[in-house]
Amino acid sequence: MAHYKEYVGFGVAGNFALHLEQAGESADFKDVITEDPNGPKGMFPFYIPVREGKLGLYPISSDTILLPSEACNVQPEPEVALICNLSYDDEGNVTEITPKFFGAYNDCSLRIEGAAKISHKKNWGEASKGLSSTLIPIDTFEKGGVMDSYRIASFLRREGMLMRYGEDVELTGYSYFHTKLIDWLKNQINTQVDFGPLEPIGSYLKDAGYPTQAIISIGATRYTHFGETNFLKEGD
């Protein structure tokens, strides 16, 4: 699934109530101060084209997750990704984010205690991220648009049994959605600095030559008890 090799990839942390607590990541953000205590905590990169290091490795697959070679708990993160166009002003600030398509997304993550940055848990190489091959056009990313009628659920098949992994939730259950999310994303991209688990997103866009297309995953949903307490195994 090489179609997105020229796209930049970002995610949103903490955009669905209780997910960070379930994932054991809430402590990572103890020093991050946000204007809205109920809003997202920040953004993170998971793929930056031509960048050196792991962030430059293309991670997208539509049918496979390859587990890392080192022993580590790996946990799916069921969520939604927006396929977006980006526009910039003369100073390199993002002025417009236009979602064109959406689809199911697996922000699969390493559960590593003490990781300095969110991104250190997000990309370990080929097929470490899942994106549906079926994308749905977005008519308008505002209240009343096509996305309002969709839900997301996730399941894990193991040894012939199918188990619920994530809760069945409405997309409108995201803390920030529609215009509120877009405005937050623009501000976060243009102002987020290198602090704690966060990284300077705007600087990364500059280094990548100001890409005009992006995959933005908008936050993992809540786990069932099974999902919260079970990690991926070979053969799942």
List the helices and strands and how they pair.
Elements lengths: L7 E6 L5 H4 L19 E6 L12 E2 L12 E2 L2 E11 L5 E13 L2 E2 L18 E3 L4 E2 L13 E8 L2 E10 L7 H14 L9 H7 L5 E8 L4 H5 L7
Parallel strand pairs: 1-12, 3-8
Antiparallel strand pairs: 1-2, 4-7, 5-6, 5-12, 6-8, 6-9, 10-11
CATH fold-level assignment: Fumarylacetoacetate hydrolase, domain 2
- CATH level-1 class: Alpha Beta
Known CATH architecture: Alpha-Beta Complex
Count of discrete domains? 1
Distance between the termini: 21 Å
Q: What's the overall geometry? A: globular
Q: Tell me the quaternary state.
A: single chain
Order of helices and strands: EHEEEEEEEEEEHHEH
Helical fraction equals: 10-25%
Q: What about the largest sheet?
A: 8 strands, mixed
Number of helical segments with 4 or more residues: 4
Mean pLDDT comes to 93
Low-confidence stretches: none
Gyration radius over CA: 17 Å
Number of extended strands: 12
In the CATH hierarchy, what is the superfamily? Fumarylacetoacetase-like, C-terminal domain
Task: Report the sheet-strand fraction.
Answer: 25-35%
- The chain-level structural class is alpha+beta
Question: How would you describe the overall organization of this protein?
Answer:
With 236 residues, the protein is of the alpha+beta class. The protein has one domain: Fumarylacetoacetate hydrolase, domain 2 (Alpha-Beta Complex). The chain is 13% helix and 31% strand. It has 4 helices and 12 strands, in the order βαββββββββββααβα. It is globular and about 55 Å long. The two termini are 21 Å apart. The mean pLDDT is 93.
